Structures are given as structure tokens and as C-alpha cells.
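> call design_seq(struct)
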């Protein structure tokens, strides 16, 4: 059995008369273990017994003074986490702890990560980074090259000094188009958009005092920092604050998938993995075949990812359309109108967009691979990683679009599963 699957048995020796705040102590201990997330425990009543201070003598039929043993079998890491919480309750009661060989067991899941697996085992290293005194153009090129929504900024000694995010570029630098679309533009279209950024430095745009995690941090703890920061990636630093890596959804999902694939243990998880339907985003930006192109373009502008799914009249997935594909299918004045709309702070009405008299079907791209709503979450994570996709549509057996499963949603689900 792997070290990560080590199972231990705890025995707590009490007396049936022991109490805590008016309740039998053995019930209080069981409640504490249940609230703490223990797999399960049993209170066993003895016929008679004696302890180090006195001999217990029982008259026939009497319950008073009988010994009670609380027995608890669980994963070793969960025992280590929960056992100290019992000390204030049980005082100097005898507690034994032993490793137990397992022929077969079904225990509460520890979550999708190995107990001894930390950030340093999964992070991207070396991390892309940019110097604090570098021109902003260097940061833009690095973020576009590595498809990053968060780029660490370092001082001369490689200590983390800040981060540049997509939000920084939109609101502090005025670059609202999105780096991913710059390659879809001609030089004549791109140069005027980038002209206001010429001469500006990284330090003007970055967010100082960024969130970061240490390499020794457990993955569940790092997920909290990743989710709370709102970053697409969280920087990883050593104890001196020097940048040593970067952790994002892809690295987290890869660690979870690798742990789940290890298998081969007699210890099984009692908790079934959550299916996609419980964690998917149930609202998907979509347009219906037959709607005008202008309506489709308006939906693209309103979608956070600048991408919509096309469905037929029965809601079946028929294809997809994104901003880059729309630009490629537009020309002349229509292209300029849509390009200007992409750079506005807020999406505007469809009235100012081209294509009121024709449909969007000629611009439609093939439907991307989809996943079923009952697919386990980790299988969906594996599928996303294999395809290099940020999100995938969820469709039922009839092909109807039900929602979207995205890397971010999977990361939040993994955080909820983790001890």
C-alpha cells in the first residue's frame, strides 16, 4: 500500500458515565469526528473493565461504570488533522494509535490531491516573467506568446514585485481588445491600437503587492489563493520572495488527474466523484440558427470569452462563433465597425453592428468537442487538458446544449472536494 494510502486505527477509552456539558462524552466525541470530516467511528460498550485508578465492579444488569471504547479507522493524514481537536474533550483518557493493514476499505475521499503533493511538484517552472523596469511591449509579447492572463513582474534580484493581468491592460492601459485578437489584425489595424502604449513601462500598469504562494504550500491551500486573487495564474515564490514558478488551472488539473490515475490501492473512495452536471455553468452564450449576423456579433461582444455557441431551434449544438472568426469573415466597413465595438469598455446594442439583413451561418465554425453531463469531473478535466481547451460545451444524449464546463469551474470544484 502506498504511503499516501496509510490507514490508522484510533481507540479512545472512556467510561459510559463520562460527560461533557451534560451529554455523554462518547457521543460528543463522535459528533466532533463527524463534523471534522472523519470517515466514520463506532462506540463499543464493554461488559466490564478496570483502569489505572480503580477496579470496576458491576452488579448484574447495571450499566453504570461500564467502559466505552470509541474506535475510529481512517486515512493517516485525516487522523493527524483531527486527533488534536479531541484533546480538550477527553482529557487524560487513554488513546491508542496504530497503523492497520488493509485488505479492502471504503473511506471518505481525501480529495483529488495526494497528501504529500505540494505546489512545487506541479508548478510551471521556470516561470515566464518580466522586469519591473521593462517596456510594456515586452510584457504584451510575453503574455501573448505564453497565453497568460497573469504575468509576474520581478525586481532586479528576481523578487516578485507585482503582476500584470488582463484587467490591468484593459483599465490601466486601455487595451480592451484582448491580446488573443491582435494576431487576427493587419498591421494597419493593429498599430493604431498599440500606439498609445508606446513608451509606457511595466511599472505604470502592474498591480503591486501581488498574491503568491510558497513552493511547499499544499495544492488545496494554493487553490484558495488562486480563486481569491482572481488571477489566471498565481506566482510561486521561495522563502526569500524570489519567483520560482507559476501555478494555474492547467497545472492544478494535471496534478488531480495524475493522482486519480495512480490507482491500484485497496483503499477506495466512498464519495463518488461529482459529475459535470453539478459543477457546469448552466448558462451558455448562444445564438439560434436563422438569427441575423448583427445579433450574433452582439452576443459575442457580451460574452466574457468573446465566443458563442450556435444551436438549432431545438437547442441542439450546431457550431461556434468567436471574435477572431467573425473578424475573418468581415471586410471593409463591416470589419471596422466590429473592430471598434470590440474596443469599447461596454458592449453596445446590435443596432450599430453590421449584418442586419443576413445570417451568421457562413461564418459558423464546426461544433467543438462536447462532454456529457454525467461524465465525472476528473474525466472532464482530463478531456480539457488533452484538447488544450479552456472550456467545452456540455450536451445531453440528444445533442442539446446544457451549459459549459470550464477549467476555472473544475478548479473550484476540486477545492470543495479537498480536505
Amino acid at each position: 500500500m502506498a504511503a499516501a494510502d496509510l490507514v490508522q486505527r484510533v481507540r479512545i477509552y472512556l467510561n459510559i458515565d463520562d460527560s461533557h456539558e451534560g451529554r455523554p462524552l462518547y457521543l460528543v466525541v463522535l459528533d466532533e469526528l463527524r463534523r471534522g470530516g472523519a470517515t466514520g467511528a463506532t462506540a463499543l460498550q464493554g461488559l466490564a473493565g478496570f483502569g489505572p485508578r480503580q477496579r470496576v465492579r458491576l452488579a448484574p444488569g447495571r450499566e453504570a461504570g461500564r467502559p466505552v471504547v470509541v474506535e475510529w479507522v481512517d486515512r493517516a493524514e485525516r487522523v493527524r488533522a483531527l486527533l488534536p481537536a479531541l484533546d480538550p474533550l477527553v482529557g487524560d483518557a487513554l488513546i491508542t494509535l496504530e497503523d492497520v493493514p488493509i485488505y479492502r476499505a471504503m473511506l471518505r475521499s481525501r480529495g483529488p490531491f495526494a497528501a504529500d503533493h505540494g505546489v512545487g511538484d506541479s508548478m510551471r517552472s521556470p516561470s515566464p516573467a518580466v522586469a519591473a523596469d521593462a517596456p510594456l511591449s515586452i510584457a504584451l509579447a510575453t503574455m501573448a506568446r505564453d497565453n497568460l492572463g497573469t504575468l509576474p513582474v520581478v525586481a532586479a534580484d528576481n523578487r516578485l514585485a507585482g503582476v500584470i493581468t488582463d484587467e490591468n491592460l484593459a483599465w490601466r492601459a486601455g487595451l480592451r481588445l484582448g491580446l488573443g485578437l491582435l494576431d487576427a489584425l493587419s498591421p494597419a489595424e493593429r498599430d493604431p491600437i498599440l500606439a498609445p502604449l508606446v513608451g509606457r513601462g511595466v511599472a505604470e500598469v502592474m498591480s503591486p503587492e501581488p498574491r503568491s504562494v510558497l513552493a511547499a504550500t499544499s495544492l488545496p491551500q494554493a487553490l484558495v489563493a488562486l480563486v481569491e486573487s482572481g488571477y489566471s495564474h498565481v506566482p510561486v515564490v521561495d522563502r526569500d520572495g524570489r519567483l520560482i514558478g507559476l501555478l494555474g488551472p492547467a497545472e492544478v488539473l494535471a496534478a488531480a488527474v495524475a493522482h486519480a490515475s495512480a490507482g491500484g490501492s485497496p483503499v477506495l473512495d466512498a464519495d463518488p466523484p461529482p459529475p459535470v452536471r453539478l459543477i457546469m455553468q448552466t448558462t451558455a452564450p448562444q445564438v439560434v440558427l436563422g438569427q441575423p449576423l448583427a445579433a450574433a456579433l452582439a452576443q459575442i461582444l457580451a460574452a466574457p470569452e468573446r465566443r458563442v455557441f450556435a444551436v438549432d431551434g431545438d437547442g441542439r449544438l450546431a457550431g461556434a462563433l468567436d471574435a477572431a472568426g467573425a473578424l475573418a469573415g468581415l471586410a471593409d466597413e463591416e470589419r471596422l465597425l466590429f473592430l471598434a465595438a470590440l474596443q469599447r469598455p461596454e458592449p453596445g446594442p446590435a443596432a450599430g453592428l453590421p449584418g442586419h439583413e443576413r445570417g451568421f451561418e457562413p461564418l459558423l465554425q464546426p461544433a467543438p468537442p462536447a462532454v456529457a453531463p454525467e461524465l465525472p469531473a476528473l474525466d472532464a478535466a482530463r478531456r480539457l487538458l488533452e484538447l488544450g481547451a479552456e472550456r467545452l460545451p456540455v450536451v445531453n444524449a440528444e445533442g442539446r446544449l446544457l451549459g459549459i464546463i470550464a477549467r476555472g469551474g473544475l478548479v473550484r470544484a476540486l477545492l470543495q472536494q479537498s480536505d
